Q: What sequence folds into this?
């Protein structure tokens, strides 16, 4: 039997580990060089031996972070393209030196300190045929006119601070924009920045991110909010529409009407109406707050709409109560009582705005703003300012009050006009004196009213031989007069007391039990005849002044 020979290892072969498990190595100087490498702290280099796994983990983590960052950047680019409309460059309107000079002149006619006027815009866009949409150039011209006339713009916080009893600001406006259309980001934002002005947008929050590219996205809204140029308030979540009110197809605003429940063949009851409206309003507030903006303090009524159905009074009243629960201030563009921003409107919680349309020129806008600026109770010859008399209930011109008989084919028998109805909302502690003439035939009458558009307007009615004081249309005092064709009437208006003096001898007085913040208001003149062909009374003069001025004269 052959014996196995003893296996011998080749000379110079060493079994060692290169990092891939034990294996033979024919490097004769391995031990020496390996020792030398170890003495330099490298072993077989990084990633070899005991260092391989930490290094691999680190490299893997770095690779993963690069991949994640690249993916996140890609997602961000995708979302930006989808939810961020590229902004157009700021537009410059064609404005002449004469335009600027005219706008500056208008500004000098107005008080430096007065309650702000609230303006309503809707959208800024190119190539729109809507009467509510301004082109970028038109919008730039409007802001230029405001700037040259000396107007500043207020933030929502500054506006509510005044309405809550803060100091009267410098000549200012609140720029409001209804709905939340994408043109405000694409065009209006840079124009606003150019003029260093501020805007307030009333959002239909349920439409944001939808119906692109008509409405804004929440990404655009958040960017606009961070710029400091914009505030965001409520315009409902999903009630900016008309919906069925009955089985015949009549429609109306869901905020102020009970809706038709088709499946049940009936209209909402009061509890269902309240729950639906409250759910929508609270939802709109939550939408805005959830995107990092302050809780809205203002609400704009959709379409500035009112009730239209037989139960309108009840639903309208409910809507007002619901809005008052959530919003200190409610904005409208149409109101039977023109309560522009004032202490009166703050008390009522309702502010009427001045609407700007596509056809509105900068001059027209400034004229509208001027008519709504609250002015002091002072006018020495208001009968010669026919442009300042509004609210007329007559088919005749203003000349009828000056003794010029109307020339219409169907002669009216009654005329009424209010002096600066929008800018006398806060008048109190003032005096008005009028000379009423041509009362000789006893078949006509004239009247001087005070506290116009308040909760309790007061009227002194004068005939040839009698004076009567009316409170909100009801007689509260009456006295005979010496029969004659001309009488002088002076009415002194205090916080809650109205006192009339006729010819300096006859006194009629009334003290209201309403809160004084509901009683402020301006001046009305009225004239009437009992039958066609009678002579119309004449207002020979009229003077309005603060009570302290009247006291100094008296």
A:
């Amino acid at each position: 039997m052959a014996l196995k020979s003893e296996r011998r290892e080749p000379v110079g072969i060493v079994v060692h580990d290169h990092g891939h498990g034990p294996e033979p190595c024919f490097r004769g100087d391995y031990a020496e060089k390996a020792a030398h490498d170890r003495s330099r702290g490298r072993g077989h280099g990084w990633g070899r031996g005991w260092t391989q796994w930490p290094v691999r983990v680190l490299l893997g983590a770095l690779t993963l972070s690069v991949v994640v960052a690249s993916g996140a950047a890609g997602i961000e680019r995708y979302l930006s393209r989808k939810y961020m409309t590229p902004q157009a460059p700021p537009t410059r309107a064609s404005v002449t030196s004469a335009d600027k000079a005219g706008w500056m002149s208008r500004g000098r006619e107005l008080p430096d300190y007065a309650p702000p006027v609230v303006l309503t815009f809707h959208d800024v866009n190119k190539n729109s045929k809507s009467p509510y949409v301004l082109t970028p150039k038109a919008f730039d011209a409007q802001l230029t006119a405001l700037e040259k006339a000396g107007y500043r713009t207020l933030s929502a916080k500054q506006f509510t601070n005044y309405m809550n009893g803060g100091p009267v600001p410098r000549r200012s406006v609140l720029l409001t924009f209804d709905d939340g259309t994408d043109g405000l980001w694409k065009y209006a934002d840079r124009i606003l920045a150019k003029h260093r002005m501020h805007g307030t947008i009333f959002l239909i929050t349920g439409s944001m991110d939808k119906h692109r590219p008509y409405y804004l996205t929440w990404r655009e809204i958040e960017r606009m909010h961070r710029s400091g140029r914009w505030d965001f308030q409520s315009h409902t979540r999903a009630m900016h529409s008309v919906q069925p009110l009955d089985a015949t197809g009549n429609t109306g605003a869901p905020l102020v009407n009970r809706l038709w429940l088709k499946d049940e063949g009936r209209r909402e009851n009061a509890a269902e109406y309240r729950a639906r409206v409250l759910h929508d309003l609270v939802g709109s507030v939550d939408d805005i707050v959830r995107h990092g903006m302050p809780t809205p303090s203002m609400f704009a009524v959709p379409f500035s709409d009112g009730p239209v159905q037989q139960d309108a009074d009840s639903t309208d009243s409910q809507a007002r109560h619901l809005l008052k629960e959530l919003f200190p201030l409610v904005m409208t563009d149409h109101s039977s009582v023109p309560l522009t921003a004032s202490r009166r409107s703050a008390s009522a919680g309702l502010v009427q705005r001045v609407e700007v349309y596509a056809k509105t020129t900068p001059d027209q806008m400034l004229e509208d703003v001027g008519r709504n600026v609250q002015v002091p109770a002072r006018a020495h010859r208001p009968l010669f300012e026919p442009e300042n008399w509004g609210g007329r209930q007559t088919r005749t011109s203003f000349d009828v009050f000056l003794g010029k008989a109307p020339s219409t084919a169907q002669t009216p028998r009654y005329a009424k006009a209010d002096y600066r109805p929008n800018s006398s909302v806060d008048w109190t502690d003032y005096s008005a004196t009028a000379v009423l003439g041509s009362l000789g035939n006893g078949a006509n009458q004239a009247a001087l009213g005070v506290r116009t558009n308040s909760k309790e307007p007061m009227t002194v009615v004068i005939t040839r031989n009698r004076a009567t004081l009316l409170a909100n249309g009801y007689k509260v005092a009456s006295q005979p007069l010496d029969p004659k064709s001309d009488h002088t009437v002076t009415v002194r208006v205090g916080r809650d007391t109205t006192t009339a003096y006729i010819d300096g001898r006859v006194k009629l007085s009334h003290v209201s039990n309403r809160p004084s913040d509901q009683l402020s208001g301006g001046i009305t003149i009225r004239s009437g005849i009992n039958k066609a062909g009678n002579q119309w009374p004449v207002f020979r003069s009229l003077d309005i002044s603060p009570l302290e001025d009247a006291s100094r004269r008296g």
In short: The first strand starts at residue 14 and ends at 17. The two ends are 154 Å apart (CA to CA).
